[in-house]
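ok trying again, last paste got cut off:
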Amino acid sequence: MEDYKSALESHQHALQIRIKLFGEVHADTAKSYHVIGVTQSWMEDYKSALDSHQHAIQIRLKLFGEVHADTAESYRSIGVTENWIDDYKSALDSHQHAIQIRLKLFGEVHADTAESYRSIGVTENDMKDYTSALESHQHALQIRLELFGEVHADTAESYRSIGVTQSWMEDFKSALDSHQHALQISLKLFGEDHADTAENYHSIGITQSWMEDFKSALDSHQNALQIRLKLFGEDDADTAESYRNIGVIQSWMEDYKSALESHQHALQIRLILFGEDHADTAQSYYSIGFTQDEMEDFKSALKSHQHALQIRLKLFGEDHADTAQSYYSIGFTQYEMKDYKSALVSGQHVLQIKKKLCGEGHSDAADTYTFIGVIQLEMKDYKSALASHERALQIRLTLFGENHPATAESYDYIQLVQDRMKTGVSIRLEQMKSSNFVKHLLRRIFYKSITKHSITKDSI
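nice, full thing came through this time. structure:
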C-alpha cells in the first residue's frame, strides 16, 4: 500500500506539471488522469478512481471523439471500476460502449476486442447471467486462439475465466478441465514458480472442493501456497488467501484444529497488511468463528462473529450480503448456546437484509424463514413457527416446484410444528434435530463464501 501511495503522489505531481504545460484538454493530461485512476483502483479507492477515469474520458471525447482507441480504453476502465463497486448495470453499459468502438476500429479479431469480450463476461458473471458470460468468455477465447495460439498468457486467462463461469453453473467437471488447461499453458510459459501458475492451482483447488475431492483440493491449495511463499513471502494478500482456502478445506475434512491454525495465520497477515477495518480481515474473523462453532467453542465463536459484524457494518452498512452472513452466524451460535431470543433477533435482521437485497421470493429469503421457524419452534411459539415455515414453502414451491429437496424440507417442518401443536411434544423433533438444519445452513453459507475471494474480478 505504501508503494501505491508513493506512486499516486508521483502521478499527481506529473498531472500538475502537464496541466501547467498543456492545460486540461490535452492527451498527456488525460493519460495522467487515467494512470491516477488505475493506481487508485489498486488502492481500493474506487470512488476516486471512477472520478479520475471520468475526467480522462471527458478530455478524450473532446480531443478525439467517440471512435478512438483511447476513448475505448477509458470506457473499459470506467466499466472495471463500476464492477468493483458492484454497479454491474453501469459496468456492462461501459464495456459494451468500449467493444462497439473497438469493433469499428479493429474488427473482431484483435487483442483489445477480445479483452472487451472478457470484461463483458466478468460483469455478466457478477450479474449471475452465466449463460451470457460463458458465451462472452468463449468469444474472447476464440479470438485469442486465432491471434496467439494455445500457448499464450491471454489464452490461459480465457480458459480460467471459462472455468470460473462453469463453476458458477455447477458444471464442475468442465470447469476442472478448463482450469487444468490454463495450468498446463502457465507451466509451459512460466514454469512452476510463477504467480499465474499459483492462481491456476488455486482455481483447481476451489473446483475440486466443490466436487468434494477434498484431498486433491488440499494438495492444490498447498501447491499454490508454496509458490506464493517463494514469490511473495509470508506477508502478502495472496499468501493469506491460500492459508484461508487451506483452512476451508481442512474444515471440510473435519480437521478443525488445523483449520483454526490456518485461518489464524491468514488473519495475522491481513491485520499486518490491511489493519482491522478491511473486508478480508472481517472474512478471517468470520472463518475463525465458523471453525470455533464446529469445535463447539461457542463463546469464542460468538466473539469472532461479532468482531466480523462490527467491521462489516463500518465498511458496508446494514444492507449488505456480508453483513447478513455475519448476522446468520451470530444467530446460529446464539441458537447453539440456547439463547433463542437473541437468535431470533439475529434471524430477523438477516430476513430484513435479504428481502431488501434479493426480494421476498428468493431462495435466501426462504432459507431465512426456515431458520426463523426453527428458532420459534424451540421457543414454543408454534403459531409463528408454522407461519414462517409456510412462507418458506410458498417461496420454494414458486421457485422449485413440488419435487425438490428444499420443498420437501418445508413440508417436513410444517408437519413437525403441527405435531408439536397437537401433542405438545414430538418424538420427530429428536429424529429431525432442528439444530442439524441450522448447522447445514451455516455450512452451506460458509463453503459457498469460498468463491467470493477465489474468483477475481476484472483487472485494469
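cool. Residues 426-431, 451-460 have pLDDT under 50 and may be disordered. The CA atoms of residues 235 and 272 lie 7 Å apart.
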